[in-house]
C-alpha cells in the first residue's frame, strides 16, 4: 500500500463519517419528489414535473440504474487496493506522475464536501445568511464529490471509473435540477434571488 492509497483510504473514512455521523436530510429528496404524482406547487414545465410524469420503468432506468453504477464505480478504487486480481480485471493503470496530483484532487474534493456539510448543519441549526461555500456554489457538497471522483480516476486509471464519470455527473446534475425546481417552488423569490447571485456549481 502506497502513501497515495492511505490518502484515498482517509478520504473514504471521512465519507463514512459524514454519512453516519453528520447526515444531512435533503430538503428536497429526489426519491420523495419522484414518488409523488405531480402534487405540489412546481410549474408544469420544470424538471421536477417532467421527471414525475415519467413511467415507473423510465424512472428506474433514468435514476436507479445510473445510481447503482455510480456506487459500483465509487467502490472500484477500494477493490483496486485490496484485491490485486480485481485491480487487473478493472484495468487499474497507475501512472507514477499522476499519483499525487490525483490524490490532491481526492483530498480537495473531500475537504470541500465535508466542510460544506458542517456549514449547512450550522446554518440549519442557527439560521443566518449562507456560509462560505454556499456563497460561492449552490451545491458545494456535490462539487466536492465531482472533484474527488475525478481524483480517483486520475489515481487508479480504471476504464470503468472514466466510463462512469460522465454518467455519474449527468445523473447527479439531473437530480440537482429536480431538487432546485422544488426549492424554487417552495421558497419563491428568496430562492430565485439566491440562484441569481450564486452559481449552481462554480463560475459567475
Give your account of this protein's structure:
The chain has 204 residues and is mainly α. The protein has one domain. Helix content is 72%, strand content 0%. It contains 9 helices and no strands. Helix 8 crosses helix 9. The longest helix has 29 residues. About 3% of the residues have low confidence.
Largest sheet: none
Main structural class: mainly alpha
Number of DSSP helical runs: 9
Number of strands: 0
In percent terms, what proportion of residues is strand?
Answer: under 5%
Parts with pLDDT < 50 across at least 5 consecutive residues: 38-44
Number of domains: 1
For the CA atoms, what is the radius of gyration? 18 Å
Terminal CA distance reads 41 Å
Tell me, what's the shape?
Answer: globular
**Fraction of helical residues:** over 70%
Order of helices and strands: HHHHHHHHH
Average pLDDT, rounded to a whole number, is 84
Structural topology:
Blueprint: H1 3-21, H2 30-35, H3 47-52, H4 56-82, H5 84-89, H6 99-126, H7 140-156, H8 159-187, H9 189-197
Briefly say what this structure is.
Helix content is 72%, strand content 0%.
Relevant terms:
mainly alpha; 9 helices; 204 residues
Amino acid at each position: 500500500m502506497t502513501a497515495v492509497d492511505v490518502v484515498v483510504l482517509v478520504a473514504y473514512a471521512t465519507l463514512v463519517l459524514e454519512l453516519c455521523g453528520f447526515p444531512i436530510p435533503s430538503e428536497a429528496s429526489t426519491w420523495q419528489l419522484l414518488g409523488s404524482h405531480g402534487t405540489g406547487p412546481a410549474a408544469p414545465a420544470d424538471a421536477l414535473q417532467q421527471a414525475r410524469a415519467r413511467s415507473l420503468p423510465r424512472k428506474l432506468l433514468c435514476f436507479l440504474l445510473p445510481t447503482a453504477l455510480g456506487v459500483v464505480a465509487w467502490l472500484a478504487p477500494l477493490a483496486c487496493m485490496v484485491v490485486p486480481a480485481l485491480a487487473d480485471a478493472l484495468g487499474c493503470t497507475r501512472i507514477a506522475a499522476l499519483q499525487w496530483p490525483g490524490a490532491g484532487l481526492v483530498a480537495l474534493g473531500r475537504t470541500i464536501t465535508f466542510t460544506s456539510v458542517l456549514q449547512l448543519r450550522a446554518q440549519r441549526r442557527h439560521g443566518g445568511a449562507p456560509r462560505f461555500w454556499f456563497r460561492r456554489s449552490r451545491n458545494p457538497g456535490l462539487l466536492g464529490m465531482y472533484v474527488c471522483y475525478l481524483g480517483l480516476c486520475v489515481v487508479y486509471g480504471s476504464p470503468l471509473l472514466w466510463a462512469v464519470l460522465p454518467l455519474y455527473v449527468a445523473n447527479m446534475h439531473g437530480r440537482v435540477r429536480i431538487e432546485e425546481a422544488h426549492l424554487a417552488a417552495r421558497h419563491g423569490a428568496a430562492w430565485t434571488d439566491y440562484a441569481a447571485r450564486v452559481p449552481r456549481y462554480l463560475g459567475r
